[in-house]
Amino acid sequence: MTTETDTPQSLEEARRYVRRKRILYTIVAIWIALSLMWFVIDLADDSSSWWFYWPMLGTGIGVAITAIVLLGIGGLFGVDWERREVDKYLRSREDDPGRQGDVS
Predict the structure, then answer these.
(1) For the segment 16-49, what is each residue's pLDDT rounded down to a tens digit?
(2) Minimal CB count within 10 Å: which of 34, 44, 65, 91?
(3) Nearest by Cα to 24 from 74, 63, 75, 78
(4) Are 78 and 72 in contact (CB under 8 A)?
């Protein structure tokens, strides 16, 4: 079943999205494994205070930033942003009279 939106460009865009999603899932799985490791180490530690949540928090912030960059959560750097930037760039090239004779 193909539709009018199944152009090579939209298929490539879908592949990129799925690839980014797979990368994010891998990063989240690694973060969970590290968090469990820190928790177990903290349990085995003889200290009276809990510390495992500090490295979890720090790396969790990194995972959240990665999610925003990869998937464009909240409209930041997502597919729509990419389209707008490409359109803006193409319009600026069309408006630049010095680039009319350029063949590149």
Answers:
(1) 888 988 999 999 999 999 999 999 999 998 888 8
(2) 44
(3) 63
(4) yes
Looking at residue 13, what is its pLDDT? 81
How many domains, in total, are found in the chain?
1
What 3 state SS string does 4-41 have? Answer: CCCCHHHHHHHHHHHHHHHHHHHHHHHHHHHHHHHHHH
Using the 8-state DSSP alphabet, how is residue 51 labeled? -
Q: Is residue 47 part of a domain?
A: yes
In a domain, 4, yes or no: no
Q: Can you say whether residue 3 is alpha, beta or left, with left for phi > 0 and alpha for psi between -120 and 50 degrees? A: beta
Residue 80 falls inside a structural domain: yes
In a domain, 104, yes or no: no
Q: What are the φ and ψ backbone dihedral angles of 102, each rounded to 5 degrees?
A: -70, 135
Calculate the alpha carbon distances from 80 to 7, 15, 71, 83, 93 in Å: 17, 16, 11, 5, 20
